[in-house]
Design brief:
The protein is mainly α. The protein has one domain. Helices cover 86% and strands 0% of the residues. The chain has 5 helices and no strands. It is globular, with a radius of gyration of 16 Å.
Length: 125
């Protein structure tokens, strides 16, 4: 039961962090037609997930409930595949096919690179 509560608390903070970060990016970079807010939180989240994975599994051996708070709870709520999918749909509906392709490809490819960089950085830490 404690693990569920830990994940829920982490998820609440991750959702608040995502909302805040997305709002900041949207307000300061709203002139772009590229869905930068979702893209940004997904890249940051991918990096942090890779980083925290190494810290919890290799470097610090965090307790399972602490690792779950960070990875499943906080970062699971911080990143958002469903919003990325909706952004992609809107780009297609607006006939921005090239931008939609760039968005989805860069989200996946750069997300993998961000996670890899997080792993590398944590191992250097």
């Amino acid at each position: 039961m404690w693990m569920y509560l830990a994940v829920a608390v982490g998820g609440a903070f991750g959702a608040l962090a995502r909302f805040s970060a997305s709002k900041y990016v949207a307000e300061n970079f709203s002139d772009l037609s590229f869905p930068l807010a979702t893209f940004s939180v997904n890249m940051i989240g991918s990096f942090l997930l890779g980083f925290s994975y190494v810290l919890s599994a290799e470097k610090m051996s965090l307790e399972p409930h602490v690792a779950a708070v960070i990875t499943v709870g906080f970062l699971g709520s911080f990143t958002t595949f469903s919003t990325m999918s909706l952004d992609f749909y809107h780009l297609l509906a607006e006939a921005k096919y090239l931008l939609a392709g760039i968005y989805i490809a860069s989200s996946v490819f750069l997300g993998l690179i961000a996670a890899s960089l997080g792993i590398i950085m944590a191992r250097l830490f």
